[in-house]
């Protein structure tokens, strides 16, 4: 695009600043209304820019959406990776505490800037309920590799659990945290049910309770152990009159 056309779309603003400004406005609107909520007209009006500017910098609304979530997912991934690396370095040869690993895994959802937290949660929820090539690409690029690292660390910290249990509890952990932070308005269901005794709008309280709940889940017995202890043994006489014990083993 010529210098003249760049001036037409960016006005007197530096093109890089225009791009950053549009991204920030889109982030705010996506966090408030969801991925598919804001229209291009709403985004350009809120940003005080033109449709030409959005198309120049991002190509389309899909391109803008991808840029917003790719940037956020990369930041979350890099921050998590740095915290996990710090935990490994601090532990040395000692085991890393289970609670520390879970806090690092949950931090993007339950701590920090609220709009960023909601945006990350919306991305994950949309990929679970209505996956698209955009959400799948971002999740597979930025979240899946680190999820494998986290599940490996969790397995080291909770060796009594099978790999199947670890993956299930990791999956449920993320589901629990992301569902909880979506209902944190002043009139959230938690505060209504408890008549104010518990309030999901209190960020520190939510983080504390979520962490305690999920840590307890990983500290609990594995499903194989629970199934084995719950199954009665059945005895039957063999061909020669000897008792035989039949057990069922879960894999």
Offer a concise description of the structure.
This protein is mostly helical and 251 residues long.
Detailed description of the structure:
The chain has 251 residues and is mainly alpha-helical. Strands 1-2 form a two-stranded antiparallel sheet. A hairpin with a 5-residue loop joins strand 1 and strand 2. It has 12 helices and 2 strands. The protein folds into 2 domains: 59 residues, Homeodomain-like (Arc Repressor Mutant, subunit A); 184 residues, Orthogonal Bundle (Tetracycline Repressor, domain 2). Helix 2 crosses helix 3.
CATH topology of the largest domain: Tetracycline Repressor, domain 2
CATH class group of the largest domain: Mainly Alpha
Protein structure class = mainly alpha
What is the β-strand count? 2
Largest sheet: 2 strands, antiparallel
Under CATH, the homologous superfamily of the largest domain reads Tetracycline Repressor, domain 2
Mean pLDDT: 84
Count of distinct structural domains: 2
Approximately how much beta-strand content do the residues carry? Answer: under 5%
Helical content class:
over 70%
Spatial ordering of strands, largest sheet: 1-2
What would CATH call the architecture of the largest domain? Orthogonal Bundle
